[in-house]
Structures are given as C-alpha cells and as structure tokens.
C-alpha cells in the first residue's frame, strides 16, 4: 500500500529536476552537420611554405654517421672508437675523401593569403627564420618564389609577398575578441607536409600565457595541430581568421589536443606594420614592473586587493620617469584600460601609438593620481642603461639588528662595498646577515642585498630603517614594503612584521 507514496516521490523529484535544469540556447545544442562547404571555400587561401637553407657539414666527411653509443666499459665501446677514428678523415690510415658540396636543409610550414591582388601571405617567423629561399605552394601545387617583407620575432609573425598572374584567393581577419570558449573553429594547414589538411575543434581557453614572451595572449584549441601547421589559420564558422596556429603542447611531438594560436586582433596590427614598413613600432613606457600580491596591496593600503602593476624602477630617461612615474607607484589604468594584473600592461603599452599622450592612473601615498605620459618607441635592445645616482656622502652609523625580522643591516662602507661587489654609486643600507627561518629568509633576502626604501620612503642609514619599521608597528601595520636592490635588479619585498621578540606582531 506504499505505491502512491513512491509515485508521489518520483513526481516530486521530476518536478525538482525540471525546475533546476539549465535551458541551453538553440545554437549551443547542435553541432554543425558538416564543415565541407566552409572548408571548400577556405582551402584555396591556405598555402604551404617551403624553405631551404644551407646546412653546415660536419668536419671531415659531410655524410659521416655519428659513432653509436655503447654501454660504458663494454668491449664494443673500444671497438667502435677504434673503427671510427681509423675511418675519420685526417686520421692516420684513414682513406682520403673527396670534397662534397654543402647540403641544403628543407622545412615545411603553412600560411594564408590576406590580399589576393598584392599577393600578401602571412605565416610564422619561425617557419621562415634563417631561410635562404622561401617558396609558397598553392592548393593546386603551383609553386611561387616569395619575397620576405618583414618579421616580428616577439610575436612570431612574418609577412611574405608573391608575384604571379595565377588567380589567388584571400581570407580576412575576424574579431578574435568575440571568440568564446566553446566556439567551433577550423584549422587548415600543412601537417607533416600533407598539404590542405582540415581539422575541427573548439576554442578551449583564452588568454593563455605559455612563457614565450611579454606579449603572450594565445587562443587555446583542441583542433588537431601538428608539425607543419605552424603559420596556418584558425577559422571561425564565418570563415574569418581568428588566430594563427603557432605552437602545441605535446610530450610526443604529435597533437594531443592542446594547440595555441596568436589572436587575430594582435596579428592584424603586426601584419599591417610589417607589410607597410617591414618592422613593428611598439609603444614603450620605460619601467620595470612586478606583480602586486595581496601582501603588497595590504602594505600599500590599496583598495580592491591585488591588482595593477607595481613599478620596481622607472628607467632613467624613459617616458615614465619623464612623466612623473616613480618607483613604488602602482599603475592601475593605462590609456583608460584597467590593468588587472602585471602581465597585461606590456601588451596594452605595445599596442598604443608611439608618441601619443596617454593618461596613466597610479596609486601613490594612499590615493589615486593621474599623470600624462608621452609614449616612446620600444628600443630594439630592451636592456636600457640608466644613469647612476650621485655618490652618497658617508653616514656615521653602526650595524642594527632588525628584531623580529631576522636580519642585520649596516651602512655601506668601502669594506662592505668590496665584500659584496656593490657599485661605487650604490646608496641605501646593506644586509649583512639573515637568520635562517626568519621573515627575511622566507622572502629570500640575502646578505649583499641593499634596502633603498621602506614603505616607499628612501633610507640611507640603518637607524632610518629601524625607525620606519618601528613606526609601522606603532600603526599596527602587518606588512612592511621594502625596496631592495640585489643581483637580480630592483624589486619590492613585502615583509610580514613580527613582535620585538619574534612573536607575531
């Protein structure tokens, strides 16, 4: 007689599931029946790139094989060594070998045509890097010698031009910012020399940083990308190029469904500059920056938590220093664009027109300020040498132990300057001892590091360091922000404060 109760429970459960189910948009509930019409339309615009370059032959016989590796101590080890030495040219008893011409290496990649009338082809820089000759192979196997218009190694983009009476088909760039995770995409290219290969997948992720450079902002896709696909296009379902296939993650060298493409919005700007002038001009701010951590945000009383880019150094003579930005400022907005994290700032700056005056919102001394910077051009050599500060006058002072922080600091003397190999113009307070397990050791402070600022105030004597930290303790501040110069350059170090006897403060 419990059947009605069971039936009621089932109906109730069905109602709950129906109420909590997610209704998907109609377009998200079905996959394309076929990619054939789109592939047929796009294939003629995708090309194979073939390059050749001279390969330096090994000394002696150019085609001599390497000696096989035998287990150490094996009888074969001595046998192989004796055999190869006797047959190596130049060794006594070795047969004389005729001179052979230099061999030529060949590599294959992909590309795509973006201007049929002018014959403009886009590919990856690493596909054509070092090539003596570049050939573009069309879908019908027509081979055309290409001219290199320009390359940009920082984003791995190259632009070629082909001149031909042969009719060409071009594709256009789309808006890669509109590509969403889960969108269908097609990759077309020349994997392993098999031209005109089409693979399909989805956008797996956006904004990937794969540690290839400052401008990493890759689209990740699971469309199969293999060796030879480099430089080929990644299409959306409208037939627009939303990315340039550039790299894969693969322990085996083959596709495992993790490929990376340069976003079209980045590539399009680079291609336009390479096509017109053969080089890329990028905006330059002239700062060394570091990530704002939660502790740094706490030390600076920055509202909203960790955000922005902390200026570790404004390079002497750079646009930032000329516009009033200084060490210890946090850049929150650049040219009306929020800087949510450190790594976004170089991309925003690079995309800004050289010579443009831009507003920069910074956090300084507990409040927001806006400065105007006239953007410079990023030098070819990014290592900018800054002028030295005038030598500091000698300070009569003595070493001081910073209780609870685990370090002993001292004024910079000639003896310490020589001991720690400090610059003649170095100013600040040098760390001479660091206690194991202390807050200083946890932050990887080392003897020879020089404290130049405490809470964005310059310090020149141990007494000043001690006074600034004591003041922070009196204000019940939990973190002291130190500006430190060491072997790796200048950085800011958030140091958790403890009580005078080492207990939590």
TrEMBL record:
Keyword Secreted: no
InterPro entries linked: PDZ (IPR001478), PDZ_sf (IPR036034), Pept_S1C_Do (IPR011782), Peptidase_S1_PA (IPR009003), Peptidase_S1C (IPR001940)
EC number: 3.4.21.107
Residue ranges of every copy of the PDZ domain listed in the record: 269-342, 405-481
Main localisation: periplasm
Pfam families assigned: PDZ_2 (PF13180), Trypsin_2 (PF13365)
Keyword entries, A-Z: Hydrolase, Periplasm, Protease, Repeat, Serine protease, Signal, Stress response
Reactions performed catalytically: Acts on substrates that are at least partially unfolded. The cleavage site P1 residue is normally between a pair of hydrophobic residues, such as Val-|-Val
Name this protein carries in UniProt: Probable periplasmic serine endoprotease DegP-like
Organism: Neoroseomonas terrae
